[in-house]
Amino acid sequence: MTQQEAQRRYDRLVRQISRLSDREMTDRRAARLERLVARREKLKSVVDTFEAPVETPKDEVSYEFYKTDLITGVKVTITDSPFDDTFVGGEASEIVFKGTQTRGCNTKGWKYTTGLTPDTFANTTETFISATNLLNDKLDGSYDVTVGLKQGDNFIFSEVLI
Fold it and tell me: Which of 25, 92, 102, 126 could bond 119 through an S-S bridge, CB–CB 3.0 to 4.6 Å?
């Protein structure tokens, strides 16, 4: 049964129940009204399933700045949903930091890439940390930093870090 057919049948039952309820009630009409109401309730559950699509979980990534006295980096929490292929589980990924600094007419920048998830990570939520002492003077607020997750040649889930 299609959505339109279910809705059409439901609307017809509602009209029949309304007309029957407006008439003088006899035992026969009461029994018929009871049957129509029962059919309407069954059909209502069918109509509701069409109207309420199932919300499937989506892939998500969140970044959190990470700093100690010795190392600087980012904590990355990844949720890989089996229903969404934005992040492909079972495929290794990298974290890419890009920084730019503009002073007057001059712009300088840097890029740091490192592995993040193993190819065994799939269909779950985990937090990974990517940190190094090479970024201590770069993630100190002197650069505009963007962090992104990369799988193959595709950047997914980029975000401005600081």
Answer: 92
